[in-house]
Write a structure and sequence with these properties.
The protein has 612 residues and is an alpha+beta fold. 43% of the residues lie in helices and 12% in strands. Helix 15 packs across helix 16. 33% of the residues are buried.
Amino acid sequence: MADRGEDEDLQMAIRMSMTPEPKRNKPRDEVAGVISGLPEDSPESKTRRRELMAAAAEKRMASIVRVSPSPASSPATKGVKKEAEVVKRVEELPLRHESLSKELSAEEANKLFVMVFGSEVSKDILAQWCNQGIRFSSDPETSMGLVQHEGGPCGVLAAIQAFVFKYIIFFSDELKELPRMPLNRGLGASSKSHSVPSYNISSLTEGVKVRALVRSMGEILFLCGNNKRAVIATLSIPENDIQRFEGISEEEVIASSLKALSIESALDLLKVLRVETHTSETTAFQRLEALIPVFQSRMGALLFLISALLSRGLDLVQSDRDDPSLPLVTAPFGHASQEIVNLLLCGQAVPNVFDGRMDLGGGMFLKGIARNVEVGFLTLLESLNFCKVGQFLKTPKWPIWVVGSESHYTVLFALDPSVQNENELEGRETQIRRAFDAQDQSGGGGFISVEGFHQVIRETNIKLPADKLDNLCSAGFIVWSEFWQVILDLDKSLGGLKDSSGLMGKKVFDLFHFNGIAKSDLNGSQVNVGGETPLQRPRLTKLSVSVPPRWTPEEFMADVQGPSASGASDSAGKDTEVSKPEPVQHAPLVDCIRTRWPRAVCSWSGDPPSIV
């Protein structure tokens, strides 16, 4: 009798799983009855129903395997097909993908935790990284941007944001028309084939933004996986199908499941982390799309960092680094290291931003960026002479750059790829600078040996007069700034940049700067009525940029500080075809822009763009 009662309950559960959820104005027991006499809302009833539903799914799967093929019109075949569709829908639920997911071993979890946070990490840093989701801003003017509420994970968010801009600006039609197309990692796409977008990037549908986010995440993970695999880190969340039947959204289920979660050790990570490995772009794309609610949760930024590290492989990550004993998240403020940013931008966790690697002698060398990248990187530290960003990061395939300051990462971008096109002056400058940097073994200090200098002038076909050559070499080493001044004054016919024709011309273009951290907007229009706290939101700033053609640094700085009337008159007399700009605005972001476009001057409306 007990077996018969259980079988009847099982059959009832099968019918329930294949019956649409009734409207809530009817009691459930009027539709499906009460299992084994248990009260409808009791914990025992819910547990029993969950067990029966699981058993029903197993029984249906077993019956599908046992049933022999029959004619298409057979009722048995139709029943099996209907059951198979139900099973397929259950398998596609994003949080129940056990067939692809696995746990990390205790050793792997400990290695991962120590690599990211170190053996001693404060609770504040852990809280920063465990409370930042990957979510778009709800503010209409910045809705295309990811919003940051916690300090620390900005390096992860900014890197993802840069790729998101790539897709919504240069691949918007594909996002609208082909939402299920395989990920395009840019291997065959040309920036020249994409015209300037005509739409407002802050007015995008949710579908376009989500698809851009999914493709960006997928591209980064495959980049880390050497274009062979993408490892997706997700969470082990308790069975929640019953809650979904009760009308609770997936986001609410995840938030509720994570409410009591606290990550303070590798053991805590081991308990909840599950990883999936995908070698197919299509399946990885679909899986990321299904897991968007998980990445939007408070654990999203950390999960994506873990995904990137595992896609690269923990051993390879450590071999990329110059000092693998240091944690990737830096103390005392929990910022993402340059290694994290480089991993997400170029697929390798190298610590430096120069091109290639620097030989220190004795078999020792420092590792930099090995190849061209899709989106680039600029840093305020270069303007302070702490480092030198190489051409790979400075001139990426798309006009999008992550911008680093001492404590924060933001994103700079242009809508027109032609801002990267070099005029004659820039092309010659790039050629000379690249040759000089190739001989620079100072770690970006901007000086080379006399022997290296002779190699530079041979490669670039510069014909220096004997007196200038002797003067530059007299100290036993050559400093870039002194060499560049000589080049500016050297006639074009001798390989320099002095050109009395004035044909090199200046460049004028627009850039946009996005800072995802939610801050007070100080513009009067954003202050609440009554002078209360200003609105907290990300910032998007448009900058007008003008790059003068061929001034010396002294001429440029004198003009920015405010040329006198006589100075302006003298300039007009010397070169009527070149007009210098009026005094312009300045902010630390401008210093970053000048590392990419020397002599650039910028202006904007409203508050200065902030990179902190």
